[in-house]
Design a protein that fits this description.
By secondary structure, this protein is an alpha/beta fold. The protein has one domain: Rossmann fold (3-Layer(aba) Sandwich). It is built from six helices and eight strands. The strands form two sheets. The chain has a six-stranded mixed sheet, with helices on both faces. A two-stranded antiparallel sheet has the order 5-6. Helix 2 links the parallel strand 1 and strand 2. Helix 1 runs antiparallel to helix 3, helix 2 runs antiparallel to helix 3 and helix 5 crosses helix 6. The protein is globular and about 60 Å long. This is Lipoprotein.
Length: 247
């Protein structure tokens, strides 16, 4: 609990220091994008030495993401062994709450909401780590469905922040065991992963990844096949707009 409290405090400090894109109380049209957060609770996401330090990356990227995407709400999905069915759940956080009285400061309400969103991200991560596993596809499907159900019709296409190395490892599929060197091998692997599973409903959504392909156990020579595998799923088939953190 001490670690979680420390990270929430760090996220709050990061929030206080973000002045690049301040919310304006008279800018009623700015905060109109439904946003989602995918957090990887797998063993590969515990530190920079063993994979992606998800806690550290959340501290560095969550609040800037909320600012830059003008998020009006934030929904959550965990990466676990079976992400669709995971018991780790948190209701979407309203990031642009309406004042209930004339004396309430809208900016104070918004900052409080973002603090709550940061705290909820830690709750989701801690829960996901108890279940382990790395069903990235299921997490993307779950967050996409949640956003489809809650998105504001007056806003832009939803945006998702996915903090994960994208090393799909679940009881039925291990990407590290699949040959991905040729197009035929990648197509076979993609079809194997999607067999009996839903393609994430990401069409038109902006997907921002942090930690993509950064697992240190992955050999540099295998990255291109890994990247093409996910490009086939996310861009070619699901029609998402994908933005990696190293681009």
């Amino acid at each position: 609990m001490r670690t979680s409290a420390a990270l929430v405090a760090a996220l709050t400090l990061s929030l206080a220091g973000c002045s690049g894109m301040p919310w304006s109380s008279d800018d009623k049209g700015a905060e109109k994008v439904s946003c989602g957060l995918v957090v990887d609770g797998s063993g590969s996401g515990t530190s920079d030495d063993t994979g992606v330090d998800v806690k550290k990356k959340l501290q560095e990227t969550l609040i800037p993401f909320l600012d830059e995407q003008h998020c009006s709400s934030l929904a959550y999905a965990p990466v676990t062994a079976s992400s669709w069915n995971s018991s780790c759940r948190h209701s979407p956080v309203d990031l642009d709450p309406e004042p209930r009285t004339s004396t309430e400061d809208r900016e104070v309400l918004r900052q409080r909401a973002r603090n709550n969103a940061a705290g909820a991200s830690i709750e989701m991560l801690n829960c996901a780590r108890e279940q382990n596993g790395s069903d990235v596809l299921g997490a993307l499907g779950r967050i996409a469905q949640t956003l489809r159900e809650t998105e504001d019709d007056t806003g832009g296409d939803p945006a998702i922040l996915a903090v994960s190395d994208f090393e799909q490892t679940d009881p039925e599929f291990r990407i590290s065991k699949e040959p991905l060197s040729t197009k035929a091998e990648r197509t076979k692997a993609v079809n194997k992963l999607l067999a009996g599973r839903k393609l994430p409903a990401l069409k038109g959504m902006d997907l921002y990844t942090v930690g993509y392909g950064k697992n240190p156990t992955r050999k540099p020579s295998t990255y291109e096949g890994f990247d093409q595998f996910w490009t086939d799923i996310l861009t070619t088939r699901a029609k998402a707009h994908v933005h990696h953190d190293d681009e």
